[in-house]
């Protein structure tokens, strides 16, 4: 009997070993340059077709259409149909991305041209052309016109190759039609079409008064210097106005709100009548904003709809969402009760009612049904401070506009992203979790019940030697529980001890640990674990999706509470029997670079090695919009700026620190690294340093393999790990 047991164990062991040997290693180069091969398969080009519960998707060179009440998909068109003798040289080999102006036709791009394909006629026709040097393209809802910029001026391309130049004053320091305020406060573009496409609102930024900064371009001989405007904390900032161009009259009016010229014009929205523009006007101190309504024909203020205040900061990030059937009503996002929630307002009546409430937050609006009875949203699950796993989730909800009654439509733990059909009857749910690589389903929008499964994704890493990922929780500062993620190597043995790499960001607007595929981890972390590391990440105070109090714990002292959280994480790791607490490294970029450097200086006993990329070293050198929101100005908060500056405490460095910076970084300018290095020289401290010539903030493309080879080889060498 005993022999049989041992024989069974031997056979199983041999089988497991053989299975492991058949798997191949995930190389760092593949993880970085071929990452798309190792993420779950998706239904390509999946979207709803207007007017019904039909959806379309692309498959190779074909466009397919499916229906919620039909099993078989049908072919709509092929790339050859689109070419149809119209496109130069039959240039389409794969089916392109497309937009549906209506149910009978769609538009697509090929080169600098926009085409319309008629399903009924099965033919393509040229719609409009866009110059090859066009930037910041933005089309109206019907794709009948495209706004774009060239240098610092704004243009519009119309059908039949007609191009109108909207502005002529673009120059050094005068910028039209581009995003402003350094893309803070939800600003990601500079043009905003009215619903009917007759008017175009656009930003005009005057930054001639802003101090220029120069970075060296070594691609020229001799090298030259690239100038950009960079207002640092406490310095003179730029002035922004909003132009409104009428495509029918060719005239432009400008909205120039009253008050200090360095306030922030955020979250531009049109109402359904095409006559009014709304601006959430935020003061530079960021503790007060007013929601202002302007006449789009005159640029004059109609009235202030309402205002909000906060004694620390406000950061409006979403424009108003107007209803179509009742066009005086709109949805507004606010953190006034401590969580991102939706509020229903009326232009004439003011606040109608809160729509969502409780210890969870809305992350996105999925859609509103045509009858405007319900708004569908993505949000976290309930978040308990003592068990905040709900912050790892993204679930789908249906909110009744009349009452605010909420119904959760998805129940399976994980990350759900929804698309609402134009008739409001169905939702596409793209879902993944730590245990489910991916699944795409059609749900009943009223109940959340599954109607159809479109794709169940296989594990794309099944053939690779990769370790395990698990979630942990760590007590942080103020008694809050923090969410973390641990990656173990595939050969992990609980009786062994392993060195650690901690990857950190821990700054505002970022959450690294999520219940999604790989738990939110990057592929390079799996390769690093296979070198023999435990790879760990912790979302501390200041990171997103935990509520306003959790985020505002960092106010006026960026990098202080966050460092304490990461120290708690390090202490937790050292309490684990399989962690070698004498061999721990930390790495991060940007805010994470600041955290890495700060941890190596403020608690030098915790980590033996640090690699800090693009690190903020002194918040006085960082830009106005971000820094003053969290720190106030250097004049208002001198103690906070002094306490958080890292060059003055460079002598605290005990371990090995590699600083990496990009010589053309326009986000965290190179002066940060140089100021810190000068302090190290003055104090007789010897960090390592590497510049990436020609790169801006972070290293992209093929050079990213060089970056992470350098990072991991540096850690290997300093901790004595032989991969």
Coarse shape: globular
Q: What's the name of the CATH homologous superfamily of the domain at 464-719? A: Alpha/Beta hydrolase fold, catalytic domain
- CATH class of the domain at 464-719 equals Alpha Beta
Mean pLDDT: 94
* Distance from first to last alpha carbon: 42 Å
Low-pLDDT segments: 1-18
Tell me about the largest β-sheet. 8 strands, mixed
Structural class: alpha+beta
Helix content: 10-25%
The radius of gyration computed from the alpha-carbon positions, rounded to a whole number of angstroms, is 27 Å
- The fraction of residues in strands falls at 35-45%
Strand elements, count: 45
Enumerate the strands of the largest sheet in spatial order, edge to edge or round the barrel: 38-39-41-40-42-43-44-45
If classified by CATH, what would the architecture of the domain at 464-719 be? Answer: 3-Layer(aba) Sandwich
The count of helical stretches stands at 11
Secondary structure topology:
Elements: H1 2-22, E1 24-25, H2 28-33, E2 47-48, E3 54-59, E4 62-67, E5 70-78, H3 79-83, E6 98-102, E7 105-110, E8 113-118, E9 123-129, E10 135-139, E11 146-150, E12 153-158, E13 162-165, E14 174-176, E15 191-193, E16 199-206, E17 212-217, E18 224-229, E19 239-246, E20 252-255, E21 264-270, E22 276-282, E23 288-295, E24 301-309, E25 321-322, E26 329-334, E27 341-346, E28 350-354, E29 362-368, E30 374-379, E31 395-400, E32 406-408, E33 415-420, E34 426-432, E35 439-444, E36 450-456, E37 464-465, E38 468-475, E39 481-488, E40 498-504, H4 523-530, E41 534-539, H5 548-551, H6 561-575, E42 579-589, H7 591-602, E43 609-613, H8 624-631, H9 638-644, E44 656-662, H10 671-683, E45 688-692, H11 703-719
Parallel strand pairs: 1-37, 40-41, 40-42, 42-43, 43-44, 44-45
Antiparallel strand pairs: 2-3, 3-4, 4-5, 6-7, 7-8, 8-9, 10-11, 11-12, 12-13, 14-16, 15-16, 16-19, 17-18, 19-20, 21-22, 22-23, 23-24, 25-26, 26-27, 27-28, 29-30, 30-31, 31-32, 33-34, 34-35, 35-36, 38-39, 39-41
Helix pairs in contact: 6-7
């Amino acid at each position: 009997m005993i022999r049989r047991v041992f024989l069974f164990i031997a056979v199983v062991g041999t089988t497991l070993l053989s299975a492991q040997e058949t798997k191949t290693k995930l190389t760092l180069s593949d993880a970085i340059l071929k990452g798309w091969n190792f993420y779950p398969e998706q239904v390509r080009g999946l979207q709803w077709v207007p007017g019904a519960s039909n959806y379309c998707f692309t498959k190779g060179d074909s466009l397919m259409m499916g229906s919620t009440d039909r099993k078989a998909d049908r072919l709509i068109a092929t790339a050859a149909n689109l070419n149809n003798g119209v496109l130069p040289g039959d240039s389409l080999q794969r089916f392109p991305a497309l937009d549906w102006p209506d149910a009978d036709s769609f538009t697509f791009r090929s080169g600098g041209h926009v085409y319309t394909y008629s399903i009924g006629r099965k033919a393509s026709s040229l719609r409009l052309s866009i110059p090859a040097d066009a930037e910041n393209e933005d089309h109206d809802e019907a794709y009948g016109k495209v706004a774009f910029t060239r240098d610092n001026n704004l243009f519009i391309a119309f059908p039949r190759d007609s191009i109108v130049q909207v502005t002529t004053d673009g120059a050094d320091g005068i910028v039209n039609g581009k995003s402003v305020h350094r893309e803070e406060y939800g600003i990601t573009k500079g043009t905003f079409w009215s619903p009917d496409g007759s008017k175009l609102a656009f930003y005009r930024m005057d930054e001639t008064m802003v101090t220029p900064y120069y970075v060296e371009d070594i691609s020229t001989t001799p090298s030259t210097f690239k100038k950009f405007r960079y207002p640092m904390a406490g310095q003179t900032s730029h002035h922004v106005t909003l132009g409104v161009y009428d495509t029918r009259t060719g005239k432009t009016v400008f909205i120039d709100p009253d008050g200090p010229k360095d306030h922030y014009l955020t979250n531009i929205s049109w109402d359904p009548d095409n006559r009014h523009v709304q601006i959430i006007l935020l003061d530079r101190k960021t503790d007060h904003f007013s929601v202002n309504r302007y006449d789009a024909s005159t640029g004059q203020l109609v009235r202030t709809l309402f205002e909000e205040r906060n004694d620390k900061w406000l950061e409006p990030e979403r424009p108003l969402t107007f209803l179509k059937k009742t066009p005086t009503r709109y949805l507004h996002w606010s953190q006034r009760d401590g969580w991102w929630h939706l509020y229903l307002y009326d232009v004439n009546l003011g606040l109608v009612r809160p729509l969502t409430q409780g210890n969870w937050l809305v992350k996105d609006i999925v859609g509103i049904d045509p009858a405007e009875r319900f708004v569908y949203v993505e949000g976290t699950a309930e978040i308990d401070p003592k068990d905040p796993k709900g912050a790892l989730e993204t679930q789908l909800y249906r909110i009744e506009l009349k009452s605010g009654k909420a119904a959760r439509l998805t129940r399976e733990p994980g990350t759900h992203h929804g698309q609402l059909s134009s008739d409001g009857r169905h939702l596409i749910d793209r879902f993944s979790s730590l245990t489910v690589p991916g699944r795409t389903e059609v749900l009943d929008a009223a109940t959340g019940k599954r109607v159809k499964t479109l794709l169940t994704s296989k594990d794309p890493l099944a053939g690779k030697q990769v370790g395990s990922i698990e979630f942990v929780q760590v007590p942080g500062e103020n008694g809050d529980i923090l969410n973390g993620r641990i990656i173990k190597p595939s050969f992990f043995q609980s009786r062994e001890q392993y060195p650690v790499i901690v990857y950190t960001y821990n700054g505002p607007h970022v959450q690294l640990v999520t219940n999604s595929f790989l738990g939110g981890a990057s592929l390079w972390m799996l390769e690093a674990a296979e070198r023999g590391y435990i790879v760990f990440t912790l979302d501390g105070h200041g990171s997103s999706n935990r509520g306003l109090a959790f985020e505002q714990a960092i106010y006026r002292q960026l990098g202080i509470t966050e460092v304490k959280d990461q120290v708690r994480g390090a202490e937790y790791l050292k309490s684990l029997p399989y962690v070698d607490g004498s061999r721990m490294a930390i790495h991060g970029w940007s805010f994470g670079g600041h955290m890495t450097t700060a941890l190596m200086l403020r608690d030098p006993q915790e980590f033996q090695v640090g690699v800090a990329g693009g690190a903020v070293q002194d918040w006085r050198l960082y830009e106005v919009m971000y820094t003053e929101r969290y720190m106030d100005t250097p004049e208002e908060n001198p103690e906070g700026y002094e306490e958080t500056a890292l060059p003055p405490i460079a002598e605290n460095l005990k371990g090995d620190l590699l600083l990496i910076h990009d010589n053309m970084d326009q986000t965290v300018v190179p002066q940060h690294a140089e100021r810190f290095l000068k302090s190290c020289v003055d104090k007789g401290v010897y960090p390592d340093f590497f510049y990436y010539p020609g790169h801006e903030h972070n290293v992209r493309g093929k050079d990213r393999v060089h970056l992470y080879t350098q990072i991991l080889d540096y850690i290997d060498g300093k901790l004595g790990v032989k991969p």
